[in-house]
Design goal:
- This protein has 11 helices and 21 strands.
- It is α/β, with parallel strands linked by helices.
- β15 (328-331), α9 and β16 form a beta-alpha-beta unit.
- Residues 41-54 have low confidence and may be disordered.
- Bound molecules: thymidine-5'-diphosphate (TYD) and magnesium ion.
- Thymidine-5'-diphosphate binds next to α3 and α4.
Length: 457
């Protein structure tokens, strides 16, 4: 048997190096290059040659797209509407989905709840756990609202065995908890190594596609936020879901960042209770729930989370700084964006924060990824600086340009309908938009210098 060779592969970008290096030549990340044994070269080439030869004789004929029959995508509902929604309308048979998140966030819990509900709907499931023993899974199941009794469990870390069990039990949905604890026989290397993780994922993908079984794999997330193991794992699977949340809060946010069968960035909000995770059907009300009207340094905006508008509170605190450089701390938004907004306020808004420590945060653990939230950040900053609250029934929606101009934003009317539902009556936005939503008055602002004028006395 030939000795297996190894490559040195970056765990961030997957670039191969002929020898170990401290810094990846492709993505310049430090300390990410790991030795990875190549596939054992015994059986593999033969199988491959055999298949290729078979193909050459057989008919592999491309067909015009118009001749391909439209099939309606079948989906299984998990019975957890928020989970279905994030998946794009339910589980697609034959798909492979990855659920990432920090330890303890609730990945195992939500999947166990989902398979329990699937069983109740007559869909056969198998929950394979390399993380926990079947006894531990049972203990968790006993806490849940759902009856997980009929769910088949398997404590196994060898992937081929898991797949064989799924076939033997004729499962329709397979959960594998987690990808970092399984290993495949086709590769050398410990479970959780880059090579094992990727090869296991590829194997599961082939299995899912050939068998029509829907597979969910759990993946742990590193401190930096990436799913541990190679980034390429995310390229292999059909769907990537992230489970996030502030450890101190009970909210759990489930988000799709990749979905071959639906839209991305859809958000599902859950709370962790003593009986498992419970979906929150009205996230805006939850995120605004803790807000006290009339508080200084607070402004409300509407974010588009996928196709759904969600109202959030932006909080700012400006406090005179001591000696030295003033601090800027941003939680839930890009610190660079905050720096830009502060500079625009200084030059075009006539408000100086140069002698102020500035802290900005977004309530509920959400993130401001859209420029549409600029105006709310600015309003919260000015509110804190001048010690005047924003009006309790007002929303701020607009992007700030470097010239201090306020630009129109996308999806304005959808955001405003959500605001109207929650009792908001006014919106401050760009002077160039004129949305018509019953019950909400739109006030167009020409520039950032007019924002201070919107604050209450
Ligand atoms: P878990 O699903 O094990 O997280 P992960 O698989 O992502 O590591 O979640 C475990 C946490 O959730 C743990 O801190 C206990 C808590 N929990 C509840 O609060 N209520 C429950 O009903 C369950 C099952 C767990
Ligand atoms: Mg777990």
């Amino acid at each position: 048997m030939a000795r297996a060779h190894s490559v040195y592969r970056c765990t961030e970008c997957g670039h191969d190096h002929p020898k170990w290096v401290g810094r990846c030549e492709a993505c310049a990340a430090w300390n990410t290059v790991a030795e990875e044994p190549l596939r054992l070269s015994t059986a593999a080439p033969k199988a491959r040659g055999g298949r290729a030869a078979g193909r050459r004789e057989g008919a592999v004929v491309p067909v015009p797209l118009r001749d391909i029959e439209k099939t309606k995508l079948l989906r299984w509902s998990t019975g957890i509407p928020e989970f279905d929604f994030v998946l794009g309308g339910g589980i697609v048979p034959g798909s492979l989905a990855l659920i990432g998140g920090e330890p303890g966030i609730g990945k195992s819990t939500i999947l166990l709840q989902a398979v329990a509900r699937l069983e109740a709907r007559g869909i056969r499931t198998l929950y394979a756990s390399g993380e926990e023993s079947p006894e531990q899974v049972r203990l968790r199941a006993d806490r849940l609202e759902e009856d997980a009794g009929p769910v088949l469990v398997l404590g196994e870390t060898q992937l081929e065995n898991v797949i064989a069990a799924a076939e033997a039990t004729r499962a329709q949905v397979l959960v594998l908890d987690s990808i970092q604890t399984v290993y495949t026989d086709t590769l050398e290397g410990a479970p959780g190594s880059v090579g094992q993780v990727r090869e296991s994922a590829a194997l599961l993908m082939r299995f899912a596609k050939e068998s029509g079984i829907a597979v969910f794999v759990v993946g742990h997330v590193t401190k930096g936020g990436a799913i541990a193991g190679p980034k390429t794992l995310e390229h292999i699977v059909d769907t990537v879901l992230y489970f996030e949340g502030e450890p101190s809060l009970d909210y759990r946010l489930l988000r799709a960042t990749k979905n071959r069968f639906g839209s991305v960035d859809e958000l599902g909000v859950f709370t962790m209770t003593g009986r498992g995770l419970v979906a929150v059907p009205n996230p805006s009300a939850v995120f605004l729930g803790a807000r006290s009207a009339g508080a200084v340094g607070s402004a409300v905006t509407a974010l588009m989370e996928g196709s759904r508008p969600v109202l959030v509170e932006v909080q700012a605190l400006a406090a005179p700084s001591g000696y030295g450089t003033a601090q800027r701390v941003a939680t839930g938004l890009d610190p660079k964006r905050l720096a830009v907004l502060l500079a625009v306020l200084e030059r075009r808004g006539g408000a100086s924060f140069s002698q102020q420590d500035v802290f900005v945060q977004v309530a509920g653990g959400l993130r401001l990824t859209e420029p549409a939230a600029d105006l709310a950040v600015v309003a919260a900053l000015l509110s804190s600086l001048y010690n005047r609250p924003t009006p309790p029934d007002a929303l701020y929606l607009g992007e700030l340009g470097l010239g201090g101009e306020i630009r129109p934003i996308a999806g304005l009317e959808r955001r405003l309908s959500e605001a109207g539902r929650l009792g908001f009556q006014r919106v401050f936005g760009s002077g160039r938009s004129s949305p018509r939503i019953p019950g909400i008055t739109h006030f167009g602002l020409g520039g950032v210098d007019e924002v201070a004028g919107t604050l209450a006395a």
